[in-house]
Amino acid sequence: MQVLLKISQQTFWQILGKVVTAGSTFVILGLVARSYGEEGTGVFTLALTYLAIFYLLSDFGFNAHVLKRVSSSELVVGSEWNKLLGTRIVWSVVLVLLAVGTLPLWPFATGEFFQAVIFGSLAIIGSGIFVTCNLIFQSKLRYDLSVLASSAGTLISLAVFIYLISSGYPVPLMLLAHLAGWIIIALMSLILVSRIFPLVSPVFDSSYAANLFRQSWPIAATLALNVVYFRADSFMIAYFRSNTEVGVYNVAYSVFQTTLVLPTFIMNAYYPMMLKSFKGIKVVVLGLLVVASFGTMLTLTLAPLIIQILTGGGFVGATSSLQILSLGFPAYFLSALLMWVMVAQGRYRTMLIIYAIGLAVNLVLNFIYIPQYSFVAASYITVISEYLILIMQGMVLWRRI
Predict the structure, then answer these.
(1) Mean pLDDT of 31-37
(2) Three-class secondary structure of residue 204 per DSSP
């Protein structure tokens, strides 16, 4: 019961923060949809999806690895945290160069997409700093501070978005508002961390960084594979079909993805406890199943209303796409738990193989069916891929937890 109470408290703070960020996201998406139509929405959401891959790469699994290895947050800060911060800042700068430098290689990179990514690319550094600060917030079970930082940045970003959209600026410049939000989030996070541990000073230690990359790469590779199979369909729709259909699909996917943060929040709270004991895991499984099933039923019923409110009309097909995607809630909720169980057990390479198989199946199916069936096929394949991941995880972990 104590475990459940702690998880509930930390999950509550994260949900509160998500209410702010999701509310802001939907307002922005609604304004973009109404102001720039399906094609403009496609460019905007595709740029954000592209940058999100680099946000994930800036994490590189460092937090999960460090939390698993140390026993107290004081040790983390005293001997490692400043080095971790320095490593992640340097790594994030590399990722900014990679995100922009590889743009000419992508066949879906239109001129507007190119400009949007350039304007938003520095947000990768802000995301990296925030993730590093979250190590402290997570280890101290102070997600209220994480929520405070993210909410402040989100609200400022929303204000800048509203100004840019109301002034009629083109779609690529919308990413400047996104960048402004991440700058505020990063600065606020550092200020809040300094109140817990005053000696905040990034240090880059090349030997520490090399060792960290060597030990964490299986986690990072798994997360990267996860996000690629998670969102490769948007880029394939852009290549085989059009940015207009990307806009329709990503409106539905934005709603779907917002719900998927719930198991992430639960695991953020449960993971530090799981490192000590798997006590309470059955309760967590049951809770995830109940919430996921309720989410599916609710989405199947309310999808038409949600899409109508969000877009104001048009975006034909977004409703059915959202309903199809919602069938995957149970698989996504449970696979999130089992992935971190495998991390806690140090089964990095097995986890990597599972997600590599999932990615291969996902890419092959999308390549076959997206050219003909567009986002409808992408929606079904997303669900099928996640159930495949869950089945493989279950086969590996059966009777081992």
Answers:
(1) 87
(2) coil
In this prediction, residue 16 carries a pLDDT of: 65
Q: What is the pTM of this model?
A: 0.74
Residue-wise pLDDT for 81-138, tens only, equals: 888 888 899 999 999 999 999 998 888 888 899 999 999 999 999 999 998 888 887 7
Q: Which two tokens stand for residue 83?
A: 């080095």
pLDDT-wise least confident of 173-182, 237-246, 317-326:
237-246
> Following CA atoms 251, 253, 259, 260 in sequence, which dihedral angle do they give, to the nearest 10 degrees?
-150
Q: Torsion angle of alpha carbons 210, 214, 215, 220, nearest 10°?
A: 110
Domain map (residue ranges) of the chain: 2-397
CA distances from 7 to 33, 266, 296 (A): 37, 6, 23
Q: Where are the alpha helices (DSSP H) in 275-345?
A: 281-311, 318-326, 329-344
Measured between alpha carbons, how far apart are the two ends of the chain, in Å?
Answer: 19
CA dist 370 and 108 (Å) reads 15
In this prediction, residue 147 has a pLDDT band, given cuts at 50, 70 and 90, of confident
Residues comprising the chain, all counted: 401
Instruction: Enter the tokens of residue 79.
Output: 């001997």
Q: What is d(CA 192, CA 132) in angstroms, rounded to the nearest whole number? A: 12
**Residues near 51 by beta carbon (within 8 Å), at least 6 away in sequence:** 99, 117, 120, 121, 123, 124, 178
Q: For 60-87, b where at least 16 C-beta lie within 10 A, e where not — what string? A: bbbbbbbbbebeebeebbeebbbbbbbb
In this prediction, what percent of the chain has a pLDDT beyond 70? 85
| d(C-alpha 57, C-alpha 77), whole Å | 22
Give the span between the Cα atoms of 260 and 14, in whole angstroms. 13
Is-contact 381 252, C-beta < 8 A?
Answer: no
Q: What is the pLDDT of residue 188?
A: 92
* Pair 86, 132: CB distance under 8 Å: no
Q: Is the pLDDT of residue 71 over 50?
A: no
* Contact yes or no for 161/180 (Cβ under 8 A): no
